[in-house]
Design a protein that fits this description.
Elements: H1 3-10, E1 32-37, H2 42-51, E2 56-62, H3 66-75, E3 80-82, H4 85-92, E4 98-101, H5 108-117, E5 122-125, H6 132-145, E6 149-152, H7 159-169, E7 176-183, H8 206-210, H9 237-253, E8 261-265, E9 278-285, E10 290-300, H10 329-332, E11 349-354, E12 357-362, E13 369-372, E14 375-377, H11 380-389, H12 399-402, H13 404-414, H14 424-440, E15 447-451, E16 456-457
Parallel strand pairs: 1-2, 1-4, 2-3, 4-5, 5-6, 7-10
Antiparallel strand pairs: 7-11, 8-9, 8-15, 9-10, 11-12, 12-13, 13-14, 15-16
Helix pairs in contact: 5-6, 6-14, 7-9, 9-14
């Protein structure tokens, strides 16, 4: 089955109105039965967070790696285990209330769409999809089926990000005309595609790992378990990894839609791996919180961001350059908030530039800071005011306690208690914006023009990267 046939089948859904998902029938004293697709690495963290909710019963675990499965099953011995998510959903459909998808990016949409076709609420890791066409389809399907959905951007529910959103929307720096956002991480690869083939590890089902992507021989160290983010066929580079997190608050606070133009300044494409450094400039149509148009610049890779007058902090001293972190997988997935020294930019973050000043938002678990005419301005009164108005409470600097909140929000929504804050209606737009920047990396230094209504570029040669054919596996 090719991609278009797969997505077309997903559209054949009932048109009558439903209560959000099928779990309203569970009642207040019942448990939400969850099935987890991908239980290694981030999937293990997702499993831990979801299952920490007192109203969750983990009934099914799926992973293409038996070592991951064994570890997860030890924690949830009552759950059934599977290698193939299709088999799991087919065999246990009536025994599953919600599905959590925590696979490499290229399997997000195929697994999620199958679950959604079966009327299952879905929590899907970021970025929502690997291709723009998939993102739009998942949004459409969630809307048609009236399903509870949530994208896995857990810091979306953290105090500092909610606070920054309300501060910006209260007009603390006036209308915003520019956003800078950055991460020094580098999910890129500029080497050749590997030749030959290595024995597939006995614990891994390589065909299922590839899933709907094209068939390719296994090579040790290139794909599973940690380096797939670097590669065109499986990940979305640093934009798809850290960009989603760091874009989220400015994108949400400014109530943005998808961009009008995109330009990526990066190396020439090699057809296999993403660029190591990207400087992506977006132009967005204005909103009530911005000037007529908004300029957004994203920087990633070692040493980023470069020196820029918008990014000079009070107390900054001339330096020989930004300190570069290591390029290890451990560093790239680290949750270290990276508190910066006096006058130094945080390793990751965003800067809003408005008509009445600047607002620095470190990533993550740090208060935003207002800067006017080169000096920090005390905004403690404004913070207290919006915190009280919107019931934000006090900041908690503990990831272990804060991290599960986003997941529990999904569980509660499935049980009819409240709504999710990053449903696919929002997540699909944010992901589309990210993916347009990823596609622009295939056309270095060229401005691409995006027609949101037609869902295509004016530059015809770029439209081939909006989707791909699905392999029958």
């Amino acid at each position: 089955m090719n991609k278009r046939e797969f997505l077309k089948s997903a559209a054949a859904v009932s048109s009558f109105a439903l209560l959000p998902n099928a779990t309203w029938a569970l009642g207040p004293n019942k448990k939400l039965r969850t099935a987890h697709i991908g239980v290694g690495n981030m999937g293990a963290a997702d499993l831990e967070a979801i299952s920490s909710h007192k109203s969750v019963d983990v009934v099914a675990l799926c992973d293409v790696d038996s070592i991951n499965l064994a570890k997860a099953h030890k924690l949830h011995p009552g759950a059934r285990v599977f290698f193939d998510y299709r088999t799991m959903l087919e065999e246990m459909g009536e025994q599953i209330d919600a599905v959590i998808v925590s696979t490499p990016d290229h399997t997000h949409a195929p697994a999620s769409i199958m679950a959604m076709e079966m009327d299952k609420p879905v929590y899907c890791q970021k970025p929502l999809t690997h291709y723009v066409e998939e993102s739009r389809k998942m949004n459409q399907l969630a809307k048609e089926k009236n399903l509870v959905t949530q994208m896995g951007i857990q810091v979306h529910s953290f105090y500092d990000y909610r606070l920054a959103t309300h501060l910006i929307q209260s007009g603390i720096i006036g209308k915003v005309h520019t956003v800078h956002a950055w991460s020094p991480k580098s999910w890129g690869y500029n080497g050749p595609e590997p030749e030959g083939e290595d024995p597939v590890p006995p614990q891994l089902d390589w065909n299922l790992w590839l899933g709907t992507s094209k068939k390719r021989p296994y090579k040790e160290g290139y794909y599973h378990p940690g380096n797939w983010r670097k590669l065109l066929d499986y990940g979305c580079g640093t934009l798809g990894d850290m960009g989603v997190h760091i874009f989220d608050t400015p994108y949400n606070a400014l109530n943005l839609d998808v961009p009008l133009t995109i330009k990526n300044e990066c190396r020439e494409p090699n057809g296999f791996g993403y660029p190591e450094n990207n400087t992506v400039t977006y132009e967005f149509p204005g909103t009530e919180y911005t000037t007529k148009n908004l300029k957004w610049i994203w920087y990633d890779g070692p040493g980023m961001p470069p020196a820029h007058e918008d990014l000079i902090l009070p107390g900054a001293k001339p330096t020989a350059g930004k300190k570069q972190k290591s390029d290890s997988v451990e560093d790239k997935i680290s949750l270290d908030a990276g508190v910066a020294g006096e006058g130094q930019l945080p390793d990751q973050g965003a800067m809003f530039i408005g008509k009445k000043g600047r607002l620095l938002l470190p990533h993550f678990m740090q208060l935003p800071k207002k800067i006017v005419r080169g000096k920090y301005v005390d905004i403690s009164d404004e913070i207290a005011e919006v915190s009280q108005k919107f019931g934000l409470g006090e900041p908690v600097r503990n990831y272990e306690s804060e991290g599960p909140k986003h997941y529990h929000q999904f569980v509660d929504a499935c049980l009819g208690k409240g709504e999710t804050s990053a449903p696919f209606s929002y997540a699909s737009r944010l992901t589309e914006t990210i993916l347009l920047g990823v596609i622009a990396g295939r056309f270095p230094n060229q401005t691409l023009h995006w027609d949101a209504e037609a869902a295509k570029f004016s530059e015809e040669e770029a439209n081939q990267y909006l989707g791909d054919e699905y392999r029958d596996f």
